[in-house]
Amino acid sequence: MSTHSVFQPSLGEASRDDSRPKSPARREFLKTTAAFGAGLFIATYVPELAAGAREQAAVGAGVFAPNAFLRIAPDDTITVIVNHSEMGQGIYTSLPMLLNEELQADWAKIKVEAAPVDPAYNHTVFGVQMTGGSTTTPSEWERFRKMGAMARIMLIQAAAEKWSVPAESCQAQNGVVIHPQSGKKASYGSLAQAASQVKVPQDIPLKDAKKFTLIGKSVKRLDTPSKVNGTAQFGLDVRLPGMIYAVVARPPVFGGKVVSVDSSEALKVPGVQTVQQIPSGVAVIAARFWAAKLGRDKLKITWDHGPNAALSTSKMTEEYSKTSATPGKIARKNGDPQAALASAAKTITAEYDVPYLAHAMMEPLNCVVDLRSDSCELWTGTQFETIDRLMAAKVAGLSPEKVKLNTTLLGGGFGRRANPASDFVVEAVHVAKIAKAPVKVVWTREDDLAGGWYRPKWHDRFVAGLDAEGNPVAWTHTIVGQSIMAGTAFENFAVKDGVDSTSVEGAADLLYGMPNLQVDLHSPVIGVPVQWWRSVGHSHTGFSVEAFLDEVAHAGGKDPLELRRMLLAKEPRMLATLNLVAEKSGWGNPLPKGVGRGIATHFSFDSYVAQVIEASVEKNGNVKVHRVFCAVDCGRAINPEIVKAQMEGGIIFGLTAALKTEITLENGTVQQKNFHDYQMLRMFESPAIEVHIVPSDAPPTGVGEPGVPPVAPALSNAIFAVTGKRLRRLPIRSSDLAES
Amino acid sequence: MTSFTLNGKSVSVDDEPSTPLLWVLRDSLGMTGTKFGCGMALCGACTVHLDGQAIRSCVSPVSRVAGKHVTTIEGLSTDSSHPLQRAWIEIDVPQCGYCQSGQIMSAAVLIRENPKPTDKDIDEAMSGNICRCGTYPRIRRAIHRAAELAASGGTPTHQKGAR
Known about the structure:
- The structure holds two protein chains of two kinds.
- By secondary structure, chain A is of the alpha+beta class.
- Chain A folds into three domains: about 1-215, 2-Layer Sandwich (Aldehyde Oxidoreductase, domain 4), CATH 3.30.365.10; about 235-250 and about 255-305 and about 375-440, Aldehyde Oxidoreductase, domain 4; about 315-355 and about 455-735, Aldehyde oxidase/xanthine dehydrogenase, molybdopterin binding domain (Aldehyde Oxidoreductase, domain 4), CATH 3.30.365.10.
- In chain A, strands 10-11-8-18-15-16-17 form a seven-stranded mixed β-sheet, with helices on both faces. A five-stranded mixed β-sheet of chain A has the order 13-23-20-19-14, with helices on both faces.
- Chain B has helices spanning about 20-30, 75, 85-90, 100-115, 120-125, 135-150; strands at about 1-5, 10-15, 45-50, 55, 70.
- Chain B is built from six helices and five strands.
- In chain B, helix 3 packs across helix 6.
- Chain B starts with a strand and ends in a 12-residue tail after the last helix.
- Chain B is of the alpha+beta class.
């Protein structure tokens, strides 16, 4: 099963290469989550049933709410209710585009509203209301168009009945229904009341793609105006009458517990109201944030550091390396890799390491809770509405229907705001139970970086066998790292035979033709909470696989581009993507002295990406990234400018991971505190970026994450090209490259 | 009581004098356009103007602004007509948008003092502002574009194409 199998058949435009390997990780995750929300998915997918929620969406007299996703008011205002969270990926624009392609309203009249939590808004594949996995546009590709088409059909019917003419003789255009023979016209708003009485159509045909007028255009983002004048409302900006503030002191070691608290000095800080223990630590509640923060600084807490007090990431690196030399659980096996290695003319071995990484969204975590005796209302920027509401209800001791969750704009998400334990929401409800007033729980930057739920630390060990001509004939890849899915509600579905499919994605579903291939996995259990982080497992396999392939190319005396072309002979879409980036980057053309060029590809979230990076290294070992070329095949690009922006952002995100960031632990304690020791790429380090989109009429695929995985390998391959130094750990350190 | 001028209007607040201006703006005055990112002047999300100069409000005690003029993103223009705001919209700079108030406030000082900044000038003026979404290439383009808009008397010139 893939995302497409859910809705593709009725589109009548099958993917052009159904033979391509589906990511096992993705397949498993989709199975998982579809099963998780069993039954709900059907209800949300069938338009008539989704329309059952129209009472909920309908507000105000004379408003036409044909389904849960749309309201048309008598004043011609069109409100699109969007069920996915806007965290920068542009879906508050691209989803309304899908809907309005069929509705044919005046685009200038469209407003966007965040959906409430309701089964009507569940993810068409995952079965819960959420945003993640680069699935928003692919999963809504059909539903949002159908919701728009449904409304258009009903508006035309209402007009036809009013004018006593056949519906077939009327047309819809730019928010107006027209009867060309009589010259009669009626705006959508004027038809709203009448359309509300029209029977919901059973058959909702969709436009032929050749007739698209909005899809494929770089329409301006609807959220930009509010983001340049300070009016955009993020979770941290929510204010309620009588609202108070809280910060929480959490254990310095994961799994630690409070032994005792001396709050006497904290309570002397003007404005501090109360200090109380909650399950996750010690909450300080005050009239204002700053008082709460000062109060927390004055707490004297004795901690029991618990079982993780000796954790050290440098020791883990050594242990992971030892583990990688032993056989793990088999995730993929083709041919006879051991025999092929034994008979190979040459073998090469390499080990790669990447660290724990924090998401470090610019807006630190926060949640506002108004808890009453028989109800609870929350405001937060979340990617995980259904789960958060369920967890909040459990803590509040209320049924989920009594809990209202308002999704605000997200100041970045990158996966962190879809927490499997709803950590920041659950904690906020615990705080609300003692606050006795609406309360905003604020995480500081230090809280965020030390708060866990990181991208796992990974170790990748490879052995490749080459034949006498230098062609790879065998490839083994042993992966060591924590399972993200273990211990979550998804474990039973996502972990099969000891293999978490998200740990091996990008490795077990290698696109390169390799006759003898083995991928195996060790999943150590370690007390550091881990989570999906922009591009998930691909964030380590993208680097290690593509850097090691570069090693294989050089060991066999092959050009890295030519070797990839040869190994992708049966993968036409990736081959075309690779060829596009090679052409646009002028692969093979001479470069200025001291500049190296590296190449990498990666298939993730059903999209194909290839990148070429030009970089140089200064004497002190500092890396300068000059230019990044990116080609992407993401199926049909709904809004090409948004696709380009996501690739640009993914590249910067990937460069930060390649050059800057790591979370380390010593004595169980996270060593990084703030942006001075967890540094982000900045303007002066930001390279020129060119993005080229492969033209395609295949259904849309992921865009938010696929730009990230090829960045680190393209960069490290460029550095090898210019220095001859092979980098096998991230982040790249100037000390690895300085001239001695 | 601390009194200062905020976006052209007199305000008085009763926060402790050592309270950072950021939290006075956000929590006491309800001006939430100015953002909290780090609390240590490392990310620039809290950038505002103090008597026309860019400062990081997260490390500026409110006592420092007594009697002075503070401008926040809400006061940069009343109708998003500042050349930077227009350029930001034209080029669709923001993604999540959280850092953009600070980016625009830093850029506003740059183009006021240097009406035709080079890429190097932009690097120097803007490297104190972090964008986790990676909008730097578009911020750079938009600053150049804003400089053009400002130079042409604020009249946007029409571009060809879909953008």
